[in-house]
Amino acid sequence: MPFNLDINYSLLLILVIFGFLAAFIDSVVGGGGLIGLPALLFVGLSPAAAVATNKLAGTMGSLTSTITFYRSGKMDFKSVAKFFPLVFVGSALGAWIVHLMDPNVLKPLMLIMLAAVAVYTVFKKDWGSISTYKKLSPSKLALFILVIFAIGFYDGFLGPGTGSFLIFAFLMVGFDFLKAAGNARFLNFGSNIAALLMFMSLGQIHYAYGIPMGIAQIFGAIAGSKFALKQGTGYVRVLFIIVTCSLLTKNVYDYFFK
After folding, report:
1. Dist CA 6 CA 206 (whole Å)
2. What is the pTM of this model?
3. CA distance readout (Å), 253 to 221, 234, 247, 256, 257
4. Measured between alpha carbons, how far is 158 from 135 in angstroms, rounded to an integer?
5. How far is Cα 28 from Cα 88, in angstroms, rounded to an integer?
6. Which of 89, 65, 69 has the alpha carbon at shortest distance from 77?
7. What's the Rg (C-alpha) of the chain?
8. Cα angle value 247/197/58 (rounded, 5°)
9. Nearest to residue 36, comparing CAs of 16, 63, 13?
10. 63-76 pLDDT, tens digit each
């Protein structure tokens, strides 16, 4: 359905509105798929087309928020750029393997990880308020490389919670919430673009819905990023907890009751 122009404009308006809201949230702490993907399913796309089209719109939004965070200085580009190939290759591999096996095999692990992220962040109240990042030792760097590659693979293979996992990884090595969010946006763009290229090659993207939704995500990403930068780390922490718990709740419901 790459260049299908058979468009219902009332449904397109819904996608534009929800695209803006998805990017507003996603630009800061991830989780925009919670809003964007159900909207695409609502307008009648198949699950495969909805995931692929959401990846197109999400990539446009994540690029915008990446640029906004970079310009603000809330991204440690020198430290994070070297990890870009890891998430890119990992995501491309995950998007390819998802056609060979059922992605639901990772859902129990994802639920456990989201629960751990939420609980840890709630109870460690001052965590991420200031940056304590120092150069990683060889052993910690090797572990961090493995984690980043695994998160990239997960994004291409399954996806929900990728933003939360990336932020959590950067918090664990000492970044504050704002810099963790900025660094995560850059790497999330890398995993998004890799999966997007795979979906494009498979012809699963509905461009007539995806491009307008993506344009809306550009504006949502600008608004969300600037609002986060203005409000500071406290706001990002609260939003991070809300989105992570929402992701956990939705995916627990989907896993046990659908």
Report:
1. 10
2. 0.85
3. 28, 29, 10, 5, 5
4. 31
5. 20
6. 69
7. 17
8. 35
9. 16
10. 999 999 999 988 98
